Amino acid sequence: MPPAPAFAAKLNAQIANEFAAHQQYVACAVYYDSEALPQLAGFFYRQALEERDHAMMMVQFLLDTDGEVTIPGVEAPRARFEDVIGPIALALEQERRVSEQINALAATARGEGDFTSEQFVQWFIREQIEEVATMSNLLRVAERSRADQADIEDFIAREHGDPGGQDPTAPRAAGSR
Q1: 109-17-73 Cα angle (round to 5)
Q2: Whether 33 contacts 41, CB under 8 Å
Q3: Domain span at residue 31?
Q4: How many domains does the chain have?
Q5: Per-residue pLDDT tens for 65-115?
Q6: The domain spanning residue 30 has which CATH number?
Q7: Most CB atoms closer than 10 Å: which of 1, 115, 127, 165?
Q8: Residue 46 lies in a domain
Q9: pTM score of the predicted model
Q10: Which tens digits make up the pLDDT trace of 145-158?
């Protein structure tokens, strides 16, 4: 049974939001690469891939449920930053905004009585709690260590260096087998 039309429309819009987040994180990573901050660059490249995977999970859900999939274009990301704090602050804003968008998806599914779609969104709600916490902590560390960027690099290497395995509860992404 296809998702409720209102949910499918919002999920297609969210696919665009996830691809935009992917692009923004690539831009952040490139900024850090250009500043010779390889731990921060690697962290943001990994975040970019995660956002892309989120979009592809949403695509796969629509495919699996006979929903219509649209792949909209995205605006160019912000690529210039004044300092090492800028991309992290932007990332936290972005994750908070995505949390609101995901919650709106869940509310739409519930309002439409589309329990399959509501269940699908639950994984993303949990994911967003983790994403906001990660960016909030990173921003606190970066602000505290603004004068010594090596401390930020050490924090990333220590706390986020090994991304570990994939979450076995995560929805399958389109194109993965």
Answers
A1: 120
A2: yes
A3: 5-160
A4: 1
A5: 999 999 989 999 999 999 999 999 999 999 999 999 999 999 999 999 999
A6: 1.20.1260.10
A7: 127
A8: yes
A9: 0.92
A10: 999 999 999 999 99
